[in-house]
């Protein structure tokens, strides 16, 4: 399948308050965000032309920027409207939406108080990656070598670009070994998350998921927890050690891109996608398309 590069596509991008042709959305090579990771972003999904939890994503976008010590130069209402405009201009339907904010090129050093804050929003067609029956076969995960950092060592509650460096390395290594993704532990050796998704396990009819204290408490994670409780499923947020994996029946990962995706293997541990995984898949699909 031919790859369509992201710098050479038809369409439009919202860039610093203006809708411009896709190919004209460019930045300088000495942009601070490129060299020092001073960039935050969101990953959102539009279903039938409507962005799921757009307001909540924008609120997190602003919170991430504040954690990184810069302010977004647009109001939440302006950003939400811009996202809707881009989705509409790109044809509606099912899309992935990517807002990003970053420091510009006025200063090129660690210190960058005078750099302009740029904001861009792009969207592109993104149908569901798998049909429900294919999903129910479950994906296979490796166990990453890199760990999620101590909150004293990194801004773990920001959706910041620099935090994904170890995710890319870990996912590349997993894919080379034939896995779809990798599960990461935290700095204390406890189960944390995957490279771009949160993780859930089942045992005795209940859901178990790691406490989100050193990684992002994903909006999809929050949605799935709320939906599970609506279904009468107990949700237990707690510390999970890797040796516990052999005691769980089902496993699935959740995220804007992954939605709800069952897992069949994590390294040496096997799972059988079953009723709870299907229930949460269906509940999430109904919620995002309501």
Condensed summary:
The protein is α+β, with helices and mostly antiparallel strands.
Report on this model:
There is one protein chain. This protein is α+β, with helices and mostly antiparallel strands. 26% of the residues lie in helices and 28% in strands. It is globular. The two termini are 33 Å apart.
Structural class: alpha+beta
Instruction: Tell me the span between the first and last alpha carbons.
Output: 33 Å
Which CATH class of the largest domain applies here? Alpha Beta
The share of residues in helices is 25-40%
Say what the CATH topology of the largest domain is.
Answer: D-amino Acid Aminotransferase, Chain A, domain 2
Instruction: Please name the fourth-level CATH homologous superfamily of the largest domain.
Output: D-amino Acid Aminotransferase, subunit A, domain 2
**Gyration radius, in Å:** 19 Å
Along the chain, the helix and strand elements come as: EEHEEEHHEEHEHEEEEHEEEEH
Instruction: Count the E strands.
Output: 16
| CATH second-level architecture of the largest domain | Alpha-Beta Barrel
Strand portion, in percent? 25-35%
Q: Name the average pLDDT.
A: 96
Helix and strand arrangement:
Elements: E1 12-15, E2 18-21, H1 32-36, E3 39-41, E4 44-47, E5 50-51, H2 54-67, H3 76-89, E6 95-103, E7 117-125, H4 132-135, E8 139-143, H5 165-176, E9 181-185, E10 191-194, E11 198-203, E12 206-210, H6 219-230, E13 235-238, E14 250-255, E15 259-266, E16 269-270, H7 275-288
Parallel strand pairs: 8-9, 8-15, 12-13
Antiparallel strand pairs: 1-2, 1-7, 3-6, 4-5, 4-6, 6-7, 9-10, 11-12, 11-14, 14-15, 15-16
